[in-house]
Amino acid sequence: MVKQTKLGRLAVLSLAVFSTSTFAAHHEIKMLDNNAEGSMVFEPGYLKAEVGDTITFIPTDKGHWVESRAIPEGAEKFLSKEDEKFTLTLTHEGVYVYYCPPHRTMNMTGIIQVGKSVNLEAAQKEVDKIEKRTKENKGRLFEYFDQVK
Ligand SMILES: [Cu+2]
Predict the structure, then answer these.
(1) For tag attachment on the chain, is the N or C end more exposed, with fewer CB atoms within 10 Å?
(2) Which of 91, 134, 88, 90 minimizes the C-alpha distance to 109?
(3) Residue 1 and residue 135: Cα distance in Å, rounded?
(4) Could you give the number of structural domains in the chain?
């Protein structure tokens, strides 16, 4: 019984790995004034993706944009414009830490993990720095970072 379940899970897992490495996926992250997590928030705040995938930041609510902080070596920094849709192609494996500049002290932050977390230490430093400076929604970025594998 247990063996069958494990095998079933493995089959699903290998299928998922196969499909993500074969077809680039498209993801969306909403920029919001509020959601169940609190105020000034990206949704989802933690996102797992693969090299070749694209991400579009959606300005669902007004007054937000996105700027990269810690990114993997070789990846390009990004900075979007206020209230504009912004699409990013993920070219390098690693952890991408980003925030919304006007709401960084409200911990309007997020993490995209692309493949393996090759730059984990640098990402941890940036996460610590942002959490230290944030005045509201403390701990939110730590929660996202805890999901990095
Ligand atoms: Cu914002």
Answers:
(1) N
(2) 134
(3) 51
(4) 1
Parallel, antiparallel, or unpaired: how do β-strands 109-114 and 46-49 relate?
Answer: parallel
Query: 67 in a domain, yes or no?
Result: yes
Q: β-strands 38-43, 26-35: how paired?
A: antiparallel
Residue 56 has pLDDT above 60, yes or no: yes
Instruction: Kindly state the helix (H) or strand (E) to which residue 84 belongs, with its residue range.
Output: none
Residue 2: per-residue pLDDT = 46
pLDDT for the residue 23 = 84
- Is 43 within the bounds of a domain? yes
User: Cα–Cα distance between 117 and 18 in angstroms, integer?
Assistant: 19
- Rounded mean pLDDT of 46-74? 98
Q: How far is the CA of 38 from the centre of ligand 1 (A)?
A: 12
C-alpha 119 – ligand 1 centre gap (Å): 25
